[in-house]
Specification:
By secondary structure, the protein is mostly helical. The protein has helices at residues 6-16, 37-49, 69-84, 96-103, 115-138, 151-165, 173-180, 188-195, 208-231, 235-251, 255-268, 274-282, 298-314, 322-330, 334-341, 352-355, 366-379, 404-425, and strands at residues 31-35, 63-67, 285-286, 296-297.
Length: 426
Amino acid sequence: KDPSSHDGMIRISSKLIPYIPKLPTCSNQKTVLYGDQLYVERGHSVSWGRCGEQDANSKLEGLVFCPQEWHKKQEDLIVYNQRFNISHQVDSPGTVQNIKCSYGHNKASKDVSNFYASFALAEVTTTINMLALVCHETGLTMNATNAKYSKEDYSDLVDTVLDSVDLLPKWSKEEKNLAAGISASEDPDLSIVNEMESEPVDELKPDSMLNFHKDLTYFGILMLAQKRATQYGDGEGALAMWKNSICDYHDEHKPKYRICCHRKIAACAGVFGAKVQTDVLHNCFINDQGLENSNVEGDLNVEHINCQFKAGLIKLCGNYTEESLQRCAKSLEITSCLQEKLYPHYVDSEESMMKDRLGHRTGDWSDQVRKGVLELCDANVFATTHGREMPGAPKYERKDQVDFKGLRRHIKRYNRELSFYIKDTF
């Protein structure tokens, strides 16, 4: 059945209804169905369209359609490439195109058709820029000896690095004192500053290269944080990523994923009930290996199952009977497929630590990262130089403002539609 069509979605939902548990009141228990943006949209329209039927099964009662994490990562990577994967930056150190061409990441593409390669390229680019930023902030180099940082010093270093790429404007000392309730007379330093006459300063030209690399690092860190949230099964962290991304989808004119963000946030807030809230917030990840901190997205698991199922259908040679389809589905070796494909094997390693990780291997890119960081440090990319332009994006400016007025208007409309949907279907 084709889930992209209205008729196909009705048939798919009708096939799933018999597997929905029944409550003592003979009504269907609310059950979450995860999918991509199109699946959620079609399921929402089908569920609403059948709400006038008489019995619970015909109404498709109990099906709650909600987006999940892996398809969101794909969309975030597409937004990342639209902003920072610029073809005219091959000779600019630390950019996506420079790292791709220098080190042969040929499988990576702007359209994210090969997700693993494209995400790996973004991950390496973020790592190189983040290390160069740390070198700039600390004054150290890649050849420095290992420094022993205390927990407090490490926390301060992380705050310094994140503050340097944050989009929020930093408070001045006067603003901090006002927020803390300290007047100018109580702070001698502030009173001296107020007494000094400030001379007018000419407006300086912005540093487009610095702004570009700050945003490149900032959005890369967000994607890496989202990956870690999945790995550790952090539902609250994943929800924070959805709330952050709704602004990006609004600014990039992606209304369908903006709707998905609203649906995910509403489900986590409990509008569909406590059970759905728990499932969407904490039970959206799968740990198929039984290892600590090895969770994967549920929709990624389903994608691999579908891929293997389609490969089995080819061998049926047109014999698509109900019995043959069931036989093909029951013969799937899901575990072996996931062990090989959930995480790519970039290089083979003979280290004993790698042999027991069941596919969780990573490539040794330390030499690539070191060279990339040295190039960025030599170019003084993170040192402020007014009037410097970025190749491929000469007038680049950091977008530190969001159209909250327009976003609030859409959210109000989504709230009304969702309230009508819940009233009619539940």
